# Entry
Amino acid sequence: LCPEVCRQTFGAKAGFPALTVLDTTDPSAVLAVEKKGDLKKTLFVVSSKSGGTIEMQSLFKYFHARLETLKGENAGENFIAITDPETSLEKLAHQKHFRTLFITPPDVGGRYSALTYFGLVPAALMGVSAPELLERASQMARACAATLPAAENTGLKLGAALGVLAKAGRDKVTFVMSPKFASFGTWVEQLIAESTGKEGKGLIPVDGEELASPAAYGDDRVFVSLSMERSRDAGLEKKLAALEKAGHPVVRIPLTDAYDLGREFLRWEIASAVAGILLGINPFDEPNVTESKQNTGRLLEAFKSAGKLAEDPPLWERDGIRLWADPSSAAAVGRSGPAAAGTVGELLAAHVRQAVAGDYVSVMAYLTPDGAHHALLQRLRHRLFALTRAATTLGYGPRFLHSTGQLHKGGPNKGVFVQIVARDAENPAVPGESYGFSVLKNAQASGDFEALKNHACRVLRLQLSSSTVKDLQGLVRSLEKVKAG
# Structure
């Protein structure tokens, strides 16, 4: 996620390679990268701390096979690896004769690794000055030194504020970013959710939500604003002042330029750890991340035998859209069989209206993360907020499984989940496996759906047809016809 933040914040630089971040098993996204440019002139940065994640392995197999057809035994020169010592990826890099290999400190967790090779190598390749990023981080390190009085330690103060506010019920950390730094929210979302969401506790990061009037919010919010100091948005500042006047806590963090990201990576890593300590949890583990992975593995093994993914009959089906739910959500939407009563908007509204004060609604989209889908999912999210007045989050699968997925299953049981999957038009094969990327992605979605149900979470699953844009448009229109309130 750090390379993605750098890509969106700094943009392309003349004379340096363009950076594409492929962080999904969605088949359309995989094929889009293949078609984007000349593979022979593409350098693949294969990154994984453990060296064994199924996403990384599958993507590597796919693109290495394509390079072998173009370059034969020289395919490895188009790859570099970033991983911990003595992982399977390190061995693979030697076996396949990668161009080079970067070994990272094993005692730095993945979500804390922005300022290690994981973040710095892709940033440097696209023309970002790694020394300057590290200099800004060093400035923040000095501002967070253990020798400073607590009241002067900026990372400690931020973490203490978030921890104390969360214990008082204000656990929805809502980010309000200036456009230049909008992507930072995705990175800090993972950091906060995976660090603090466990043992039934946790901060709930809310990124990318449209800002509403103060009266629309309950007393479960704290707002954090990151903006350019010299070019603040007057309209946004007015909205923040109104929130503050209404009694909502507002944290303002001014930035001078893009390289201040180096400061913020470190500030938020320290603050998240401090908040976790105040909540009484270990901010450096992720005990619930493996559950969905294990479910995925079991489903893929069953696929190899049966030739298809196992699934229960849907509770509702109409116009190519199908619906499943956990028992409590099935009761809430009045579904015990696939009878056609009720529109999809009415059923979805009934599901999310299970949210009570202090809950949040999470949209988990196993769709191609492109502009068309994102705009419609944001419209959907805005409508769900209007129906519930609950905080809303949006994540793309399977990426969020390594991010907010820990919070969903290990954090407070305050989530009302909407999983959206689709019938993919294409299913490019994963070399060496009996399944393709569509099967892999849907196994990951099914595995997470199962994990959420096992944790007694309120979750509804919608399966769209292969015409995802059309179906999303219809879903939003259907939901907009449901009365708010």
Remarks:
- The first strand starts at residue 44 and ends at 47.
- Residues 295 and 382 are 31 Å apart (CA to CA).
